[in-house]
Amino acid sequence: MKQHQFNHWSEIKYLQDIVTNPMIEVGEYSYYSGYYDNHDFEDGCVRYQWGDEKSRKLFNPIEDYGWHLDKLIIGNYVCIASGVIILMGGNHNHHPEWITVYPFVDQIEASYKPKGDTIIESDAWIGMNAMIMPGVTIGEGAIVAAGSVVTKDVPPYTIVGGNPAKEIKKRFTDKEIEKLKEMRWFDWEREKVERASHILSSSSIDQLYDFYQKEIKPNLQNKNK
């Protein structure tokens, strides 16, 4: 049996420290908590993604066929729970418009059909055992309920659940969401995030916006001059 990658369910691993696949882009402080599925991130959570050490040795579809391979792009402060499955580009050789979806070896080059990059934007939370289908974008601050199958894009700050996943509710009002999208706290310097952590760990969006107006926005304006 494969040895556990995690010693306890409370242990997390920052993706920036463990991802080696060049087709996976990760931001800062995003983590994976994979204790219960007994896999590491690239070998268990992300599936059918060319670019791991073994697949790079076996073949190179970019050089061999000129394919534009889909990437997995993960923002900052993303939370990914145990058992999450992110399906990627290696299973796109089942062409739905053809008579058969069987991937005959001599037709592999012609059968590949990219779905587009899979994007998990900053501050999203992917619940336990959720599955994200290829080419989906999960918006910033969105929450995917445990066990959900996400087949289409999820708007920012929206909670979805079910199979297929459907909107349950918005986390905040439209006006509050617009403020959050303007502030993009997850892109702030770490020192600013730590100073605002007590506000971020509350429901006071107005208070965070005041902090943003005083501490963040003036610096952004100076940079743009």
Automatic annotation (TrEMBL):
<dbReference type="InterPro" id="IPR018357">
    <property type="entry name" value="Hexapep_transf_CS"/>
</dbReference>
<dbReference type="InterPro" id="IPR011004">
    <property type="entry name" value="Trimer_LpxA-like_sf"/>
</dbReference>
<dbReference type="Pfam" id="PF00132">
    <property type="entry name" value="Hexapep"/>
</dbReference>
<dbReference type="InterPro" id="IPR050179">
    <property type="entry name" value="Trans_hexapeptide_repeat"/>
</dbReference>
<dbReference type="InterPro" id="IPR001451">
    <property type="entry name" value="Hexapep"/>
</dbReference>
<dbReference type="GO" id="GO:0016740">
    <property type="term" value="F:transferase activity"/>
</dbReference>
<keyword id="KW-0677">Repeat</keyword>
<protein>
    <submittedName>
        <fullName>CatB-related O-acetyltransferase</fullName>
    </submittedName>
</protein>
<keyword id="KW-0808">Transferase</keyword>
